[in-house]
Design a protein that fits this description.
Immunoglobulin-like; binds copper (II) ion; five-stranded mixed beta sheet; 2 domains; alpha+beta; 4 helices; 10 strands
């Protein structure tokens, strides 16, 4: 349902993953729920300052706020804020579940390795499998195919980093010693930013990379360009032997 909310940021940062619209909907829900109270409280605050400003001959009053007739001005808005909170929590849990808890089966898997201060992306080669001889390793360049469900296996060689793809509305910490699996389905072709979103040392700001979301044909062409022809020949002959 959150996907149907209008997005206040999609004009600046396009939505390029299956869950980006849901995340933007949550942003809108929070903006409205918090914004209403922010504007209301500021308007009342300044109105009170103006209305009860110093006047000649009128002594100041001391209001302790202990009488029930005064207390209700705190209790009722407080309860209303809690009701809005429940809506935000329900929305947040739904989006969190979709992006982080749920792990739909992968069509492709890429390995993402953070280190001070660059990203290494390991792509499966023509055999579609990671950790085989035809893997394609690139520094600061991630190539994926549109409309394919990708798993990423996120690692760090040294300190905490964070794999952040703004157009996907995805952020995930990389933790040394752990391999963290997550997923995304790109929905838009093009070239976009990948960032490190965790201060990881003096060169943190240099840890920008690019993601290339390609059509099936573009991706196949990129793969052919980046695969060693000898390896490709060996693969084709071994797969035909297997038949
Ligand atoms: Cu980093």
């Amino acid at each position: 349902m959150l996907e149907r909310f209008p997005s206040v940021i999609s004009g600046l940062v396009p939505q390029a993953s299956s869950y980006a619209a849901g995340m933007d909907g949550l942003f809108t829900l929070i903006l409205i729920s918090v914004g209403i109270w922010f504007i209301a409280s500021e308007v009342i605050f300044f109105w009170l300052i103006f209305r009860f400003r110093k006047k000649e001959g009128v002594p100041g009053q001391y209001i302790a706020g202990e009488k029930p007739s005064e207390k209700k001005w705190i209790t009722y808005p407080h309860l209303a804020v809690l009701v809005f909170d429940v809506f935000i929590v329900i929305g947040a849990v739904r989006v969190w579940y979709d992006i982080k808890q749920d792990l739909p089966p992968a069509e492709r898997t890429v390995r993402v390795i953070g280190q001070q201060w660059a990203w290494t992306f390991v792509h499966p080669g023509p055999d579609g499998e990671l950790d085989t001889a035809d893997d394609i390793s690139k520094v600061n360049e991630l190539h994926v195919e549109v409309d394919r469900l990708h798993h990423y296996k996120l690692e760090s060689k040294d300190v905490l980093h964070n794999f952040s793809v703004p157009v996907f509305r995805l952020k995930q910490d990389a933790i040394p010693g752990r391999v963290i699996t997550g997923w995304f389905t790109p929905t838009l072709t093009g070239e976009f930013d990948v960032q490190c979103a965790e201060i990881c040392g003096i060169g943190h700001g240099l840890m920008g990379a690019r993601i290339f979301i390609e059509t099936a044909e573009q991706h196949a062409a990129w793969m052919a360009e980046n695969t060693n022809p000898l390896q490709l020949a060996a693969q084709t002959s071994s797969s035909s032997e297997g038949r």
